Amino acid sequence: MNPAEWLYRTAKRLPEAPALLTGEQLDGSYGDFARRAAGLAAALQERGIGQGQQVALFMANSTRYLEALYGIWWAGAAAVPINGKLHAKEAAWIIADSASDLVFVDESSQAALRGLVPESVPLVATHTEAFDSMRAKAPLERPAALQPDDMIWLFYTSGTTGKPKGVMLTCANMGSMALNYFVDVDEVKREDAILYAAPMSHGAGLYNFMHVMRGARHVVPRSGSFQAEEILALAPKAGPVSMFAAPTMVRRLVETAKTIGSQGEGLRTIVYAGGPMYEADILEACEVMGPRFVQIYGQGECPMGITALCRQDVADRDHPRWRQRLASVGRAQSSVQVAIVDEAGSELPPGEVGEIVVRGVTIMRGYWRNPEASAKTLRNGWLWTGDMGRMDGEGYVTLQDRSKDVIISGGSNVYPREVEEVLLSHADVQEVSVVGRPDPEWGELVIAFVVAAPGAEIDPEALDALCLDRIARFKRPKDYRVVDSLPKNNYGKVLKTELRARLTEEERPS
């Protein structure tokens, strides 16, 4: 079903309910939201844009982002959300590869894209009269009728190794994800609000559906981005607030809350995902802010929808295996099946490490114009995630690492996350990333890149002693590299490929 139908129904039921807010400022009711989306749809169809075509969005968070998004769907087209933090040349490549017929932009991205996109692809800036006149068109009465397998969201992967791939997500994928949220993640009530601090082109934006269904409010911070102090000040006024946050954002939020004496008032639920949340960080987050946290595990290919670790499991300290559960990413969400398999695809017994595979309604249709990659990733009805993990007898899945990040030293597998967890338990360590360096004798050596906590100095001997006390000797790093920061992509993920490249470069003869 077309997700614009959810907006249509809510606007019919609750036309005066507040829908779109920038900070505390009301930008529109649900009636306004639906009329503007329907007007944008009419304007798009006048340009010949509808079902089977794509419209890109390359802009920062704003309430007009949601209007444009639903206007695209109301017209029956597919949205191509592009992270606003990407370089304009990267965005231009995605616009071309996706065959987008129009791009919604803001003032900054409009200027950056000029000259990079063919004149045949209009750039419509949401801050201009052109956008206002589009949404003021006589509205289409009903959203276009779409089938479950019709593509509505073309999501491009982060592309840390080569060009990104376009993930084709359908009406059925989005519906499955949304309904799983209510069952496995959190409930949403009409009086609630969702706060968009992370990019709306990704997980934060995907969580709009559930709040549209319930007639809840959509709040964009005035900064349009993640600012910890702004969020902690806004939440008590906008609450009860739910938000999606990467683990790095959670850490910054907790550090700021400690500094200003906040306990996260107004924040009802923080869903975290998108990278490793280390045990020390989530323990501190719960201690400072209480039982507000839920973890999910997903990929662009199975959006937000592989496993979930519920609020009770994150907050529980009484269960005999609470620590192991907290280190996991939870259990399979309701509409998918998750398994751990070996290279041949045979399911492994509980506790053994293998590749995580998943199947179900939430799984993508395939990669855009890339049948080879689709065939490699979708095999025998399963999505092969590329993530290594293990599952216990109760179904809790614990991530190890991406398969490409596993270090093989002396014939033994070393999972970087296990080493990182130990090093992060040291008070002097703020961030760490463990990678393998090629070695003619051992195959690979374990190397740790370490960022010191503010005011601290790294003592490699102390870190080595900690590792020897907590993990097998062969797993401990053979070298500790103290760095000011770790390289990250636009989504906050550490670029281990870049760290490995640094080590390879050092090995080359001068």
Strand content: 25-35%
Residue windows where pLDDT falls under 50 for at least 5 positions: none
- Under CATH, the topology of the domain at 1-9 and 28-146 is which? Rossmann fold
- Biggest sheet: strands side by side, in what order? 2-1-10-9-11-12-13-14-15
**Total helix count?**
18
Q: What is the name of the CATH class of the domain at 1-9 and 28-146?
A: Alpha Beta
Strand tally is 26
Distance between the terminal alpha carbons, to the nearest Å?
A: 60 Å
Structural class: alpha/beta
Secondary structure layout plus pairing:
Layout: H1 4-13, E1 18-22, E2 25-29, H2 30-46, E3 54-58, H3 63-74, E4 78-82, H4 88-97, E5 100-105, H5 107-113, E6 123-125, H6 129-135, E7 151-156, E8 166-170, H7 171-185, E9 193-195, H8 203-206, H9 208-214, E10 217-220, H10 228-238, E11 241-245, H11 247-260, E12 267-272, H12 279-289, E13 293-299, E14 302-309, H13 311-315, H14 322-326, E15 331-332, E16 336-341, E17 354-360, E18 366-367, H15 371-377, E19 378-379, E20 382-391, E21 397-402, E22 407-409, E23 412-414, H16 416-424, E24 429-439, E25 443-452, H17 460-470, E26 479-482, H18 496-507
Parallel strand pairs: 1-10, 3-4, 3-5, 5-6, 9-10, 9-11, 11-12, 12-13, 25-26
Antiparallel strand pairs: 1-2, 7-8, 8-18, 13-14, 14-15, 16-17, 17-20, 19-20, 20-21, 22-23, 24-25
Helix pairs in contact: 1-2, 1-9, 2-3, 10-11, 11-12
Could you please describe the fold and organization of this structure?
There is one protein chain. This protein is of the alpha/beta class and 510 residues long. Among the domains are: 1-9 and 28-146, 3-Layer(aba) Sandwich (Rossmann fold), CATH 3.40.50.980; 406-507, GMP Synthetase, Chain A, domain 3. The strands form six sheets. It has a nine-stranded mixed sheet with strand order 2-1-10-9-11-12-13-14-15. Strands 16, 17, 19, 20 and 21 form a five-stranded antiparallel sheet that branches. Strands 4-3-5-6 form a four-stranded parallel sheet, with helices on both faces. Strand 24 and strand 25 form a beta hairpin. The longest helix is centred in the N-terminal third of the chain and has 17 residues, at 30-46. The model has no long low-confidence stretch (mean pLDDT 94).
